[in-house]
Amino acid sequence: MNDTEANNAGQTPEPEGLSRRGFLGTGAITGAVLAGATALGGTVFTRESFAAAAKDAKSKVHVGPGELDQYYGFWSGGHQGEVRVLGVPSMRELMRIPVFNVDSATGWGLTNESKRVLGESAKYLNGDCHHPHLSTTDGRYDGKYLFINDKANTRVARIRLDIMKCDKIVTVPNAQAIHGLRLQKVPYTKYVFCNAEFIIPHPNDGHSFDLQDKNSFTLFNAIDAEKMEMAFQVIVDGNLDNADMDYTGKYAAATCYNSEKASDLGGMMRNERDWVVVFNIPRIEAAIKAGKFINLDGVKVPVVDGRKGDDGKDSEFTRYIPVPKNPHGCNTSPDGKYFIANGKLSPTCTIIAIDKLDDLFSDKIKDPRGVVVGEPELGLGPLHTTYDGRGFAYTTLFIDSQVVKWNIAEAIRAYGGEKVNYIKQKLDVHYQPGHNHASLTETRDADGQWLVVLSKFSKDRFLPTGPLHPENDQLIDISGDEMKLVHDGPTFAEPHDCVMARRDQIQPKKIWERDDPYFAETVAIAAKDGIKLETDNKVIRDGKKVRVYMTSMAPTYGLTEFTVKHGDEVTVTITNIDQIEDVTHGFVMTNHGVSMEISPQQTSSITFIADKPGLHWYYCSWFCHALHMEMVGRMLVEPA
Ligand code: CUK
Ligand code: CUA
Ligand code: CA
């Protein structure tokens, strides 16, 4: 009997005295979460004792004036909807990239360029992003794109890393709540894989609300990363949570916590095991190429059925590997050998050998558990695992409020029956960690320098800010044998995940190129009006539509006055002809809800109704010059 089977049989194995508790019941998880970390036994640390222990941490994270960070960090902004760029190890916020939110400073959600990216979904003013991931070539960051999910409105966005702006957004059809998202690593990021989490009836037109119905299911999705269009969808059993991809380009894996297809908490915890579903990407591609697909609910996206048949037989596209219980994170080790699923309601992680998957798909291995090569017991509430590239894994324990460092090879030997203590260290974190992420861990270059632990609660760690507390992103030095906490980083609601790349792997531009596709459509509209944006300052009337073209150069606009009629639809297009790095201008039309950024050599445009007769000042919102306050103009609105 291995540990898991012992657990499932209700016995609590205590290997090497490290196990704190055995299998977790419903009451235990609810109670433990409510009680918080320190009530769970073990040494009770105080904030002060941590401060004392970490007093020499300063030298490790201090990035002095004029010095640069070693790493770019990209943080999801959670249900705030943006992506944040941090420097690591300073943990200083460098930039925010609005994506699924509306941003007053840059005009994201207000400008015509951003509305084109948002498309139909511009009607949603909220988003909930969890999983930022960087594009790769041959399993290494290539500095091109970052992709991120929106759980709230079922979207996926792409950010161009050269300009650090979102340039594409796709709404995934036939689905609700895109959650897990990972990228193809090898040979390059051809697909963005993303999980629709919730099971819904198909078509979802009110004809049925029964989740157990055969036509109620959810979908695994592949998006063409370059075109940002849907490539294919796969119908699955159960639901889908997190995902990852291997280093051959062949297999993607996803966790499922609701194999029960239940609608309630008790129901979703009924089974002792849910599963990891593995997708055979070449087989799916081949079927689609051969025309063996369906369209779902009238949407023109190829869909294949990855469910087990009524006879219990596997589809050619998928295998379901039972793992305990309500698994959450799914993380590929950087050596490409393993998918590791995090047990959440089981104190275990399940190690799946990727090199056994060929045999599973060819049915040489009949029992899908035959690809499981380890199931270490780690502690309570394992959520996510990350890697240092030296053979160690780091798993967050939500309920224990710890990160556990363990040795993968030793955990595999222990599963084979050997007496070996695979657990190397448990470090208290503050408090209740979700994701953790080691530097470059999702690539072949995993370098084992820094570990960020995204704690869901900060409690007493910061000056109080009212009932709403910040989250606490803790920075841990993992370059030595021991994990050492070196920094507490408060963050606004709520980064679920982050990624870190070496600073040389990201090469952003310092000023815009005039032929950038980001504003190409605006340039095309101007060309139709016979406007040369870099030089012309002109008002074009087109019925009730008025297009105002002007340049900006510190500290003046090309037009300091223009006249329109009450009720006109006004489009202001500004081209910043400053060539100097960092001289960004803004444009705000007072009392019209109009604001936008125009960085050096950028063209931006915004459309509004001149709904009030009279004189209306506009001004530059970015402090650009000693005479920035004087960088103003007037819109004169004549009565119609
Ligand atoms: S999830 Cu939030 S802690 Cu959306 Cu990746 Cu696990
Ligand atoms: Cu231009 Cu301030
Ligand atoms: Ca379950």
From TrEMBL:
Localisation: Periplasm
Amino-acid positions noted as binding Cu cation Z1 in the UniProt annotation, renumbered to this chain: 328, 384
Annotated stretches, region: COX2-like: 544-640
Cofactor binding notes: Binds 2 calcium ions per subunit.
UniProt-annotated binding residues for Cu cation Z2: 130, 179
Compositional bias of kind Polar residues: 1-11
Modified how: Predicted to be exported by the Tat system. The position of the signal peptide cleavage has not been experimentally proven.
Calcium keyword on record: yes
Domain of life: Bacteria
Family assignment from sequence similarity: In the C-terminal section; belongs to the cytochrome c oxidase subunit 2 family.
Protein name: Nitrous-oxide reductase
UniProt source species: Pseudomonas mucidolens
Gene: nosZ
